[in-house]
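FORM 12-B: Structure-to-Sequence Request
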């Protein structure tokens, strides 16, 4: 196992700066997920750690070694790619053995390692098949086994599940995270850096998550911390399903004004504000909006309802702004076809963002002087 440190890491292509001097400290044995939209430079960052992409500036440290100038084979890493990258002419057994053969390991050691890895990944029946005879999930497990058999200090995963169907992706998510936890408990686990654009993968797999956008780090935190305390508008909108409602408005006398409607914020919110900007954005997750018949609430016009089984997603219009609420099927039936709905946010779960810079100003424990 090894700690991985990125220090002021940069990548420039001609006049385009892809990675903007990022700093990231990944603990020994940690499962770190890099997540963000396409083009945010998460894969570029991973490839620099792997040694597949030249570093423009900064430093990468794996364990106690600076690896900037080391080739991939000298970095004690193993990489699992999106397209599996199995050798088509070799059977599964040969694919697993290849790295150890190149390293000059004895035949008996290679055979023992193959049997151990095949048992862990439940691919013993596949050892004498060619890659073309494998399903997507089977091929991905073989690719994982080929990395695992090397016993690297660091595992690098580059969107390894993106070619699988939804059901198989969910199954492989569980398999990979269970494997990491089991090996960690046995003192055998490697540090993992896992790249994905899928925030559900990130939230369900990572010990911590690094959210990236346009070559910069937006926030690094646990899944729970990201969900409950997003640092800025980008993280708030990217993390969570359905995504957080972000409503433009203004702060006036301890009220949030949205068009003709005013929402009293109360001490739950006001005591958390670090500043008092005029123009602001109110953030509230769909799960934190309750249907009410009376009392303070936001009034919106229902435009669509998505029945999801045990819950219903209500899509509504609030002063020209889109609003989504998650309610139970029973609550939806109680509406009786009403077009106008009243939604009350949980005051303890409201977020206020400064519109000028996107920063969440409702994270601090105490209100600062204006």
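FORM 12-B RESPONSE
SEQUENCE OUT:
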């Amino acid at each position: 196992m090894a700690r991985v440190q990125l220090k002021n890491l940069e990548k420039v292509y001609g006049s385009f700066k892809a990675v903007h001097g990022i700093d990231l400290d990944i603990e020994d044995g940690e499962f770190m997920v890099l997540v963000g939209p396409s083009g945010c430079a998460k894969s570029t960052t991973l490839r620099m750690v792997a040694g597949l992409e030249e570093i423009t500036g900064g430093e990468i440290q794996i364990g106690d070694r600076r690896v900037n100038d080391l080739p991939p084979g000298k970095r004690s890493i193993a990489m699992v790619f999106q397209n599996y990258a199995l050798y088509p002419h070799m059977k599964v057994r040969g694919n697993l053995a290849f790295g150890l053969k190149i390293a000059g390991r004895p035949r008996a050691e290679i055979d023992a390692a193959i049997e151990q890895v095949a048992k862990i990944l439940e691919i013993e029946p596949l050892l004498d098949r060619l890659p073309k005879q494998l399903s997507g999930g089977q091929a991905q497990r073989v690719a994982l086994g080929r990395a695992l058999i090397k016993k690297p200090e660091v595992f690098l995963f580059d969107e390894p599940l993106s070619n699988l169907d939804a059901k198989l992706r969910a199954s492989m998510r569980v398999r990979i995270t269970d494997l990491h936890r089991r090996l960690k408990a046995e003192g055998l686990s490697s540090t993992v850096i896992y790249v994905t654009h899928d925030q559900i993968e990130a939230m369900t797999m990572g010990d911590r998550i690094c959210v990236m956008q346009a070559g910069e780090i937006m926030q690094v935190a646990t899944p729970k911390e990201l969900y409950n305390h997003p640092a800025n508008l980008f993280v708030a909108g990217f993390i969570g399903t359905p995504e957080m409602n972000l409503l433009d408005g203004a702060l006036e006398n301890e009220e949030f004004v949205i068009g003709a409607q005013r929402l009293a914020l109360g001490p739950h919110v006001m005591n958390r504000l670090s500043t008092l900007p005029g123009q602001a954005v109110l953030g509230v997750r769909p799960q934190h909006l309750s249907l009410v018949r009376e009392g303070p609430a936001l009034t919106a016009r229902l435009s669509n309802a998505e029945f999801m089984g045990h819950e219903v997603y209500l899509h509504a219009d609030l002063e020209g702004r889109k609003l989504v609420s998650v309610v139970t099927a029973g609550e939806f039936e109680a509406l009786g076809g009403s077009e106008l709905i009243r939604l009350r946010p949980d005051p303890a779960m409201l977020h206020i963002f400064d519109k000028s810079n996107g920063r969440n100003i409702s994270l601090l424990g105490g209100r600062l002087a204006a």
